[in-house]
Design brief:
With about 400 residues, the protein is an alpha+beta fold. The chain is built from ten helices and ten strands. The chain binds flavin-adenine dinucleotide.
Length: about 400
Amino acid sequence: MDFALDDEQRMMREMALRICRNELEPRLGAHPADAPMSRSLLLELFAAVRGTGLLAPRLPETDGGAGLRMLDYGLMLELVPAALAISLIAHEGCIARLYSECTPAQKARLLPPLIAGEAIGCTGSTEPDAGSDPRAVQSRLHRQGDRLLLSGRKLWITNGSVADVMIVTCRDLRDGSGSRAPMAKVIVERARTPFEAREIDTIGLRQGLLAEIVFEDYPVEPGNVIESGGGATEVLKATWSVNRPLIGLVAVGLAQRAFDLALDYSRLRTQFGKPIAGHQLVQKALSDAATAIESSRLLCHSALAAIDRGEGSPGRGAMAKRHAQNACQEAIWQSMNVLGASGLAVETGIERLYRDVRMLAIPDGTNEILSLIHGRELTGVEALRGTAARAS
Ligand SMILES: Cc1cc2nc3c(=O)[nH]c(=O)nc-3n(C[C@H](O)[C@H](O)[C@H](O)COP(=O)(O)OP(=O)(O)OC[C@H]3O[C@@H](n4cnc5c(N)ncnc54)[C@H](O)[C@@H]3O)c2cc1C
């Protein structure tokens, strides 16, 4: 086992770091800290990362993707500003699902602009009454005469207000079945049929994009229904298994920034006649924070490397994300403390990291749900739905 980056990975990290410093951070820095990115800003940022492979890392090069290993994707994503990283994960998830589930004709039409970052993608599953339990989805695809219509509300959708393409999970009432209707997925295209979306104001990731979207008898073209059958659940699980350690690495990136600020400050700030770095409890706070960051990074890397070896599992990804979010939140708290009152000041920039990391406890499985996914894999017993189940 070798924990060192190879030459290619080092070069990828250096390239990502250069783009973050020269392109992404200045553009986001010039945008108000409390305002969601505009569509044009997000497209500019997508254009800036085009050469890194972050837009379509999972797709093979033969199909226009970057053909990256998931570990390499994660190594770069950790460096990207968090609000953009979450947008990229949502965009990439949309591409990966279109690629896995769509017909050749659908792919040929939809994928090229998404892969190039000239269009924005997202996926809409969560609803006002369907969060942790995706089977509670109530949005419905139904018929009116010879028209197909989509009705329902989607909530907390990353990129939702600016997306060109959204994969919407809903109930399939095309055959008139009732509440036990099977699930369906519909591709919604803003350019063909616009839809209403509103941004939701949240505690953190305030430059990020999180929307509520209402569909009321929204016309769906028959060619925009994804007829992937039973494989859809497997595709969804595969997407989540990758996304969770990636979100864990976004938490690591936030905590690393907080730790770097705290370390610098501890060397400069003098109290009781010496730099506070020389006080034992300050060293312990820094040691605890560094340990939290490193253990989180290693767990996420290990989960992604397992996926690359074909040995990934929902439990492993769930464990990595839950540990990283918890540990990095604590690490940022410790780092803020090292700055004393300055840690609370908006101008220091560290309180924002604390607000941002809090957001990551929720998407792609809350920490409670992740512990149950991991627990199911450890025990082979299903706790979420009360029935014995395969640990998968
Ligand atoms: C930054 C961000 C980005 C997001 N992006 C997207 C997106 O792009 N697309 C999308 O579809 N959704 C997205 N979401 C929504 C997210 O997936 C849901 O918010 C999440 O699944 C939780 O659902 P909920 O908020 O309705 O909470 P609920 O499911 O209502 O849970 C409320 C509380 O109850 C707990 N709970 C629920 N069930 C159980 C149980 N069985 N055992 C123990 N505790 C339980 C939860 O852990 C939580 O603490 C995003 C959310 C955030 C914050």
